[in-house]
Amino acid sequence: MASPTVPTVAASPAERLSTPVDGVEVVGALSPSRAGDFTTCPLLYRFRTIDRLPEPPSVDAVRGTLVHKVLEDLFDLPAAERTPERARTMVDPTWEALVEAEPGLAELFEDREGPQAAAWLASCRVVLDRWFTLEDPTRLEPAEREVYVETVLESRLLLRGFVDRLDVAPDGALRVVDYKTGRSPGEGFEARALFQMRFYALVLWRTRGVVPKVLQLVYLGNGEIVRYEPDEADLVATERKVEAIWAAIRSARESGEWLPSPGRLCSWCAHQALCPAFGGTPPPLPVVEPSDAVSAQGSEDAPGTSTP
After folding, report:
1. Rounded CA gap, 167 and 165, in Å?
2. Does residue 306 register a pLDDT over 50?
3. Is 0.70 surpassed by the pTM of this model?
4. Looking at residue 278, what DSSP letter applies?
5. Residues 6+ away with beta carbon under 8 Å from 100
6. Angle at 156 between CA 154 and CA 162, to 5 degrees
7. CA 260 to the chain's CA centroid
8. pLDDT (tens digit, 9 = 90+) per residue, 207-247?
């Protein structure tokens, strides 16, 4: 009997862009998304990072990808052309380019030319219109967009991720900007978003020697901007937290115990059928070769993605 075909997993953008670290054999790699997964639910971290289980694209996540791409490309235009009208015209061709690069996205809708798809594209334009009420792109010249950043801590843990936008003031001050196409989080849910921004600030501090002046979260779902000014003490505390998360991940790997953590975010999870908290049974743990461990533990979302 023929052996079953094992689907191939494309290398993550982080793996493709990660630069060699001369003379340092890293113990593992961590991104803010995967660190957030583990603190939210260790079993979710396992499903995404060790099992690498596929997750169907959602209209919310793909809306985030499309909007991020339009906002990135908008700054390629002369300042005077960065208008709401121009951004709206960019939606359809950006969608077509996304589908061409990943044909499976077309399955989001029964008919790509039908009313459901049209309503979804209209919702993307609404989100973009809302951004123009929060920021004026004719007065912005980002230093970098969708920039990949990484650093190695003294413990030899590699931190990496993608920053949506970096603004640099004439005096060298850094503003780290992240777009969220969902609504600003309610009480008790804002910590994860701020951790992500502190994580980026920590990496930038370690690589550039400058503590970012402002961390800015732009919530396009309800038109709110959240700003935070970190200091060195914040970033030192973030480094300690990252190290603690990594220690907990290593402990779970050694014990094989990846416990579920049921909560309000379970409604977003694509793996409820395999979760013991919902009566499911996880698949057997895959055997991970040591040479594969770093890339598996550090898998990062593609640039330009957005969580709800």
Report:
1. 7
2. no
3. yes
4. G
5. none
6. 100
7. 22
8. 999 999 999 999 999 999 999 999 999 999 999 999 999 99
